[in-house]
Write a structure and sequence with these properties.
469 residues; alpha/beta; Rossmann fold; six-stranded mixed β-sheet; five-stranded antiparallel β-sheet; 13 helices; 28 strands; 30% helix
Length: 469
């Protein structure tokens, strides 16, 4: 089926905005005209290297101005972008490339200006983003141009409310769909400007926000916590910010409250996954918030809560969250078995357990696969994590089930402490014991310097289970 090429949409913006800055960074800037010419030149370069419409091109590029040049150049050609984490190496990268079978792998962009006649319509997918399945096999989620455009419009519209005068902080990895959609493509769609930060540090973020008068800050909970804890925070000028946005991993309500109190800015929470970018969110222009809910469906998105037998449940009942959204993946690359397990008649089975209030707000209870079975009792880590995060000394918390010869699994917690805070594992076990049912509280609490995380700040619970911390 032919669809409008997403690059064609952005070309219209290039003609409209001309010399306005599309991207800025510490050493310079890139105008809309330059972005269009250089991405056209890159399309010509790819064609000379034998890339044709429908081919897959892998990108291993960090957060630099060359990322959008390459991204748009690939789309202009009618090829498919496969955005990979540039930190990948060794067996992990080899395994993904064997699955992807790209025509070309791009690490660097040789800039050349040029013109290019971008086809207005294309039959090729726009994007492939890799995620890991329960088997550990890499899976490439495939997105059409229509899905990409819908997802970007949702980010730019109801989620962030972007306008041409906005400046968005581009510090999240562009290689992951959260950073790509919120920090790069949504600003481009809106005619806004992205302030690019290649690597997160509190100092780099504070400097960029002040220098470029950043108005919208998409980030993850770890980033917000590190900024609040930074010795530089009291002197930082964050007065230009109108909105912060969280994603990739849950953002604790206590952190949101502290951020608002100390910055005067709201953290807009939401829900997404590699397969469906931000189908559920709070909205920038709606002040309603509930501490235990992650938002409501964006316009055009349908949700269901289903029981194990595939029956739709009523309000407040807990079951698996199913989502149908035009932004969703059309399936995993060459993975028929995984597609049958996750995709049902246009619905994506998320694997998350949730309930929906009468007002349409969604509460996530836990992951089906993360459920801990302790002596016949079902325990969901999120409940215990919420209790731990209410302790004044705790900055981060992750709860997992560890094998136990008698009970099947035992509850184990891993935490980090706020700067200068003090607490012992015994203190924390006692704190939970007072607030949780006897079968739920963790018998083991480990205090870490840092909890292992992926590129987007998502906690890697599999590493905790393996003892890799």
């Amino acid at each position: 089926m032919m669809q409008e090429n997403f690059a064609h949409i952005l070309e219209r913006n290039a003609h409209r905005f001309g010399d306005k800055a599309a991207l800025v960074w510490e050493e310079g800037s890139l105008s809309w005209t330059e972005l269009d010419r250089w991405s056209s030149g890159f399309a010509r370069s790819l064609a000379r290297q034998g890339v044709r419409p429908g081919d897959r091109v892998a990108m291993l590029i960090p957060n630099r101005w060359t990322f959008p040049v390459a991204f748009l150049g690939i789309l202009k050609l009618g090829a498919t972008v496969a955005s990979l984490n540039p930190a990948l190496k060794g067996e992990g990268l080899t395994e993904i490339l064997a699955d992807l079978k790209p025509k070309l792998v791009i690490n660097e962009v040789q800039v050349e200006e040029g013109s290019w006649e971008t086809p207005a319509l294309t039959a090729s997918p726009a994007l492939i983003v890799y995620t890991s399945g329960s088997t550990g096999r890499p899976k490439g989620a495939v997105f059409s141009h229509d899905a990409l455009a819908f997802g970007i419009r949702a980010w730019a519209g109801p989620v962030m409310g972007l306008k041409g005068e906005d400046v968005i902080l581009g510090v999240l990895p562009f290689a992951h769909n959260y950073g790509m959609y919120s920090g790069l493509l949504a600003p481009l769609l809106s005619g806004a400007t992205t302030a690019v930060v290649e690597r997160f540090t509190p100092e780099a973020v504070f400097k960029t926000i002040e220098r470029h008068q950043v108005t919208v800050f998409p980030g993850v909970a770890t980033m917000f916590r590190r900024l609040l804890n930074s010795p530089a925070f009291p002197c930082a000028d964050l007065s230009s910010l109108r909105l912060a946005v969280s994603g990739a991993a849950p953002c604790p309500w206590e952190l949101c409250e502290e951020w608002r109190k100390r910055t005067g800015t709201r953290i807009l929470r939401g829900y997404g996954m590699t397969e469906i970018p931000r189908p559920i969110s709070y909205y920038f222009d709606d002040p309603a918030e509930f501490p235990d809910a992650i938002g409501r469906p964006i316009p055009g998105t349908d949700i269901r809560v289903m029981d194990e037998a595939g029956r739709k449940l009523s309000c407040e009942e807990v079951g698996e969250l199913w989502i149908k959204c035009p932004a969703a993946t059309e399936g995993y690359l060459d993975a028929a078995e995984e597609n049958r397990a996750v995709l049902v008649d246009g619905w994506v089975k998320t694997g998350d357990l949730a309930s929906v209030s009468a007002g349409g707000f969604i509460r996530i209870v836990g992951r089906k696969r993360e459920r801990i079975l302790r002596g016949g009792f079902s325990i969901f880590p999120q409940e215990i994590e919420a209790v731990l995060l209410s302790h004044p000394a705790i900055a981060e918390a992750a709860v997992v089930g560890l094998p136990d010869p008698d009970l099947g699994e035992e509850v184990a917690a891993f935490v980090t402490l706020k700067p200068a805070a003090k607490a012992t594992p015994e203190d924390l076990v006692g704190f939970c014991k007072e607030r949780l049912a006897h079968f739920k509280f963790p018998r083991q609490v480990t205090i870490l310097e840092e909890i292992p995380k992926g590129a987007t700040g998502k906690i890697l619970k599999s590493e905790l289970v393996k003892g890799k911390f």
